[in-house]
Amino acid sequence: MVWFARVASCDMESVIAGFVMIKDQKTIDAIGAACLSILPGMGHLYLGAKRAQVFLVCGIALLVIAKFFWPMGWLFYIQLAIFSGVDAFSFGKRGRGLF
């Protein structure tokens, strides 16, 4: 989600079709995406990232494996959730993820 505000004058780097993005909103969206990454991939879906499906499928697969087949799978799930949260925050704040 991107929020825009109308401005009369600003530098050309931040102008997008007569609008400029509110910098605080990028931070708020990035934090929201990181919080949604408790289920890996949800933060990426929130931001509209193309690689969201990869994180979501891996996260759901690890949840199923940890629940039914391998109790130690929770450790891998937690690592994936932390990595996904950091990557979603990075994508939301900078416009590109860790990769």
Write the layout of secondary structure elements.
Blueprint: E1 4-6, E2 15-16, E3 19-21, H1 23-36, H2 42-47, H3 52-69, H4 73-94
Antiparallel strand pairs: 1-3, 2-3
Give the biggest sheet. Answer: 3 strands, antiparallel
Instruction: Let me know the average pLDDT.
Output: 80
Low-confidence stretches: 1-9, 11-15
Strand content: 5-15%
Helix/sheet category: mainly alpha
In sequence order, what are the helices and strands, one letter per element? EEEHHHH
Number of helical runs? 4
Radius of gyration, taken over Cα atoms and rounded to an integer in Å: 17 Å
Q: Please give the share of residues in helix.
A: 55-70%
Q: Which strand order does the major sheet show?
A: 1-3-2
Strand tally is 3
- The rounded distance between the terminal residues' Cα atoms is 21 Å
Number of domains: 1
Instruction: Indicate the overall shape.
Output: elongated
Structure description:
The protein has a 3-stranded antiparallel sheet with strand order 1-3-2. The protein has one domain (4-94). It has helices at 23-36, 42-47, 52-69, 73-94; strands at residues 4-6, 15-16, 19-21. It has 99 residues and is mostly helical. α3 packs antiparallel against α4. Mean pLDDT is 80; it is low at 1-9 and 11-15. The protein is elongated.
